[in-house]
Amino acid sequence: MLRLGVIALLLLTVFTVLLGASRSSAHATVQHSCGLTDREFLQIAALQVETVGMYGDDYLRGDAKAKELIAVTREAARAVDETAPFDSSLQTAKRYLPLMFLQYADAVRKRDAGKDSAPDMYLAYSIGARVKEVLREAKPALTAAGCDVSDLL
Description:
The longest helix has 28 residues, at 118-145. Helix content is 76%, strand content 0%. By secondary structure, it is an all-alpha fold. It has helices spanning 2-22, 36-61, 66-81, 88-112, 118-145. It has one domain (34-152).
């Protein structure tokens, strides 16, 4: 009888551990923050997106050279990379934005060399779309915490 009780307890323990391990972290509630480093990230990221966009427009109009735009995108990637947001959604945006800028620089470099830049440009826009998706999902909670992500949407 004691053996049967020990086996039942062992099976119950294994079942409980397996059930707990199978739970996805996607169901966990994300707590958003809006501290000083989060607001700093938002300001820097928005400024860099705006700057790259302006230089990109100038480049397409012929008012800026490819080298200038590439330098601006590299600087934008560096500036964003040096930030340290605490909020998890902003950390995700921080991880993707430098990649987006550098992929855009690759597209500009290839276009300037007369090569096909479409795949690089597509990837840069896809990365940007992912950033917007993350921020759009987090916007209500970030707004409630005091952070406005509208400039990055």
